[in-house]
From TrEMBL:
Lineage, broadest ranks: Bacteria, Pseudomonadati, Pseudomonadota, Alphaproteobacteria, Rhodobacterales
One GO cellular component term: plasma membrane
A single MF term (Gene Ontology): ATP hydrolysis activity
SMART domains on file: AAA
Pfam families reported in the protein's UniProt record: ABC_tran, BCA_ABC_TP_C
UniProt protein name: ABC transporter ATP-binding protein
Record InterPro entries: AAA+_ATPase, ABC_AA/LPS_Transport, ABC_transporter-like_ATP-bd, BCA_ABC_TP_C, P-loop_NTPase
Keyword Methyltransferase: no
SUPFAM superfamilies, sorted: P-loop containing nucleoside triphosphate hydrolases
């Protein structure tokens, strides 16, 4: 049976096995259009696997992904991109032989209809303004994470999946990147964000889904999920919430 037509992304009964390992177990959730949705959970709970499925890099053992009501489950990554889906990688994948400027200009040309007209301005806002002529080998890990973000925003993707883009950033850099994401969200970009730092999740997300051991354990507002006893016990720990 087809799900109700949803504006945004709909994950329906997705299961992923890797040999004997059940990485995702019958997971269903919605990431609505014009929202910033969080996907959180402890290490190994299946978050990146879910991104790999949504963006077409792996095909699920069972289940379906719908974008604005269209079944996109079996499409290749470049076809997902044509549906407006863009992603960052938890381990950045820079083009070794291209400068920051060349990389983001290439990204902005990937989809001529949507590509950002001034990608260097996004780079400046993400803290890469004085590094436009550097090569990836000259960048810090933090800069490489920022470049991942800038690359996907430069394509003008309408639905953006971010896999721990705050990794390694200091509080003022997090604030910068938060503002950048919010500005794109205000202009109509939808986001699904994997993030460990609860402060960033609380600041950005309208709605959060929690994965525990490959199962969807809880969905709700950031406040609702951080008050859930199962989430507190299995993932956050009372102390983590106090310090979030
Ligand atoms: N290609 C693969 N082959 C085999 N096992 C895999 C593969 N990809 C992921 N896994 C396993 O699936 C489980 C979920 O991994 P995944 O990377 O999705 O977790 P995660 O929630 O993103 O974790 P983290 O917070 O550490 O990034 C882990 O046990 C992982 O080892
Ligand atoms: Mg991961």
């Amino acid at each position: 049976m087809l799900p109700e037509k949803t504006d945004g992304l709909r994950v329906e009964h997705v299961t992923q096995r890797f040999g004997g390992l059940l990485a995702l177990d019958d997971v269903s959730f919605t990431s609505e259009r014009n929202r910033i949705t969080g996907l959180i959970g402890p290490n190994g709970s299946g978050k990146t696997t879910m991104f790999n499925i949504i963006s077409g890099f792996i095909k699920p053992t069972a289940g379906h992904i719908y974008a604005n009501g269209d079944d996109i489950t079996r499409l290749a990554p470049h076809q997902m991109a044509a549906h407006g889906i863009g992603r960052t990688f938890q381990i950045p994948k820079p083009f070794a032989s291209m400068t920051v400027r060349q990389t983001i200009e290439l990204a902005s040309r990937a989809n001529p209809k949507t590509g950002h007209s001034d990608p260097a301005s996004i780079a400046r806002e993400a803290g890469l303004g004085d590094k436009l002529d550097l090569y990836p080998g000259e960048l810090t890990t933090t800069d490489l994470h920022s470049l991942e973000l800038v690359k996907v925003l430069a394509t003008g993707a309408s639905f953006v999946l971010l896999d721990e883009v705050f990794a390694g950033l200091n509080p003022s850099e997090i604030e910068h990147v938060t503002q950048l994401i919010r500005r794109f969200a205000d202009q109509g970009t939808s986001f699904l964000i994997i993030e460990h730092r609860m402060r960033a999740v609380m600041a950005l997300c309208d709605h959060v889904h929690v994965l525990l051991y490959g199962r969807l354990a809880k969905s709700g507002t950031p406040i609702e999920v951080t008050r859930d006893p199962e989430v507190i016990e299995a993932y956050l720990g009372a102390e983590a919430i106090e310090h979030a």
